[in-house]
Amino acid sequence: MAGFSGVLKLTDLDDFIAPSQECIKPVKVEQKAGRGVIRIDDSDGLDVMAEPPKYEKAKITLNDCLACSGCITSAEVVLVSQQSHDELYRILEENNKKVESERLVVVLSLSPQSVLSIAAKYSMETDECIQKLAGYFKSLGVNYVFDTNFARTFSLLEAQKEFITRYKEKDSNPKAIPMLASTCPGWICYAEKTHGSYILPYISSTKSPQQVMGSLVKDLWATQKGITPDKIYHATVMPCFDKKLEAARDDFYNEVYSTREVDCVITSVEVEQMLIRDDITLPSFNSSPLDTDLSSGSMITSHPGSASGGYAHNVFIHAAKELFDKDQDKLEWKTLRNTDFREVTLQVNGETVLRFALAYGFRNIQNLVQKLKRGKSPYHYVEVMACPSGCLNGGAQIRPENGVSAKDLVTKLEEAYENIPISNPESESKVATVYTEWLGGGDSEKVKKFLHTQYKSIEKTTSALGIKW
Amino acid sequence: MTTALQTLTGHKDRVWNVSWNPQGTILTTCGTDHSIRIWAKEGDTWTSKNVMSDAHSRTVRCVAWSPCGNTLASASFDATVNIWDCKTADIECVATLEGHDNEVKCVSWSASGSLLATCSRDKSVWVWEVGEDDEYECLAVMPSHTQDVKKVTFHPSLDILASASYDNSIKLYKESNDDWSVFCTLNGHESTVWSIAFDGSGQRLASCSDDRTVKIWQEYQPGNNEGIATPNNEPAWKCVCTLSGFHNRAIYDIAWCRLTGAIATSCGDDVIHVFKEQPQADKNAPMFDLILTIPQAHTDDVNSVSWNPTVAGLLASGSDDCTVKLWDFTHIF
């Protein structure tokens, strides 16, 4: 199961067997009365033969798989690979053959972690890389290339707001605090399958940048451009396969137009494969600036905090100001048990009023969840990420060259990340405009619909067929 | 002498594991009947001192005492490991380690008593740290095997861990930079490796398998005299002896006595064998003699054998026939 986070690999630890042998998903077959087939062998008996019943081809969709915990996902892997760069190539090829009026508008959103991964591989500067990538994808037929940091601003602002609300009701609602970050799908899938309804109330309802981007592209932008959502094909470039599962969730499917908010997720390693396949030397390819409608700018900008999105950082700073009127700038993170588990606190009059943590990787998630179960978690907010070292070390990031350790590569990517110009989420005027014009203000129904989501626990179905010895 | 010293009855279903406390005064057994039973000697006979009948909600697969002798860990098919405080006769469950995805097969304490290792059918090996106030924190989760992991055991003195799996391999783990990882994989068995045991020095490992052989593995440190390559400057382990032709079925457990150096095996052919190394043997090509065979030691598969850590020659065995037997082999030493 290459490409997935360690956390997803651990919860889905069965052998790879073709779905047809192992799948226990009950497939509904329409029972039609009457038509039977009577065949009697050899001997001279009755030989009434009606038409053998024609069965519909049994199809299992990716969603069926996500919802069922039975066969543990060799089927998941098979299906997820269908949402891949091959699929993107196919769509682009088909699209290019269509007449202008029939064509889909193809949009691609680049995540900063993927851009950095590719930049490191081809020894390019971040800005240079993103422009070359834009150039490359446009040459394939993509119409617009954005980066996801604009969308991330919304995720950060919503997370900040949500935290304030939860913190204020912590005495009356035992499940309000700690608030757990929601942007990592590896964590979400694990939580839904393994800890179910116990842990879900703690998880933030804020959507991840990928899915916010999906809403922006297929609703706001589509409306602005006068195109219906089903005429847009939205692909994203992400650092892990877990994001493919996220894009396929039911909650992110637009029923009215029968279209997904994100149609296809390709990953850093897949982009590498595409470049090799097309025999492209990226540094010498044509540049193209980012399209600015939904980008953080014509050049990529970032947010302060961790390279996995900076959630803990931004929520902490906002909370410190909003709740305690304290201006915080640089946060002092204290490494606890290991470098993937760190905490920061705010003291007011000798009392610790805010205690935030970063918990990356399975062992730290385990300890966090177990402590929570026993009621012994001292935290108000935890930025949970499935991959040790965070998104820069995602399951589908490009592997380091020979001789370079994974740790060294991550350090290099972190440095590059910190060099991206920063803007604070609150100070982006374009974002403010979107809130008022598109979403109708701070807490409207539209905000809830487009920027928030929900979770449901997945029951483990222990059928004998599902057990692999 | 092929008759048992004593037969302990009480378990209502197969006995999966027998384990002595470090002082050698208590025998603990567990099995499919969800119970853990504590046996101690009263006068000349071993009697049942305590029965923890609902220790878990499913089969209890393995029990292990901490080196201090105050704490007992039990691993169960219910996917949890329970920690029992045994300082007084009032045994209490003080912690439950959750996290494995399905049946936990084995639990082992490190020599210092500050670490615990568990392994499961979910193919992973977990290392836990024993904290204050019965707080157990997960230190590492290693999904290195490709199949069910049957056994984990710590090195007799160092924080080195070994695991045996249905995937026919044995893996060795140690910690570096805050993280545990595999530093050596031992391949050679042709089928499931059911159990492994370090000798007293920790430089030798014995393994037993479904392929009906016992293998003895020797450690070679970097810079060794024999010229064995040690890639990545990690110790290398080589198979220096294979004992075949002695067992007729899968060998389920192996125990290497720290006092006498004798190796006991328990087999699916209901037999217990005891082997001893020839004294003048070459370290790199040791020879082991079969010094004792107990045919029909039990009336069914023998799942577990364990040497008493303080009384030389005292062996305990547990079987699918629901009994536990004690054997006195002092005459052969």
UniProtKB/TrEMBL annotation, chain A:
Pfam families per UniProt:
Fe_hyd_lg_C, Fe_hyd_SSU
Q: Iron hydrogenase small subunit domain: from which residue to which, for each copy?
A: 403-459
What start and end residues bound the annotated signal peptide? Answer: none
Q: Which InterPro entries match?
A: Cytosolic_Fe-S_CAF (IPR050340), Fe_hydrogenase (IPR009016), Fe_hydrogenase_lsu_C (IPR004108), Fe_hydrogenase_ssu (IPR003149)
* Zinc is among the record's keywords: no
Gene Ontology MF terms in the entry: 4 iron, 4 sulfur cluster binding; metal ion binding
* Record key words, sorted: 4Fe-4S, Iron, Iron-sulfur, Metal-binding
Is Nucleotide-binding given among the entry's keywords? no
- Domain of life the protein comes from: Eukaryota
Listed PANTHER family: NITRATE, FORMATE, IRON DEHYDROGENASE
Physiological role: Component of the cytosolic iron-sulfur (Fe/S) protein assembly machinery. Required for maturation of extramitochondrial Fe/S proteins.
Question: What family is reported?
Answer: Belongs to the NARF family.
The protein here is known as Iron hydrogenase small subunit domain-containing protein
The record lists the organism as Petrolisthes cinctipes
UniProtKB/TrEMBL annotation, chain B:
Could you provide one GO biological process annotation from this protein's UniProt record?
A: iron-sulfur cluster assembly
Q: Which UniProt keywords apply?
A: Repeat, WD repeat
Keyword match Phosphoprotein: no
The UniProt entry annotates WD repeats at 8-39, 53-85, 97-130, 142-174, 186-218, 295-328
Highest taxon in the source lineage: Eukaryota
Q: Which GO terms describe its cellular component?
A: cytosolic [4Fe-4S] assembly targeting complex
Spell out the protein name for this chain.
Probable cytosolic iron-sulfur protein assembly protein Ciao1
Q: Which gene encodes it?
A: Ciao1
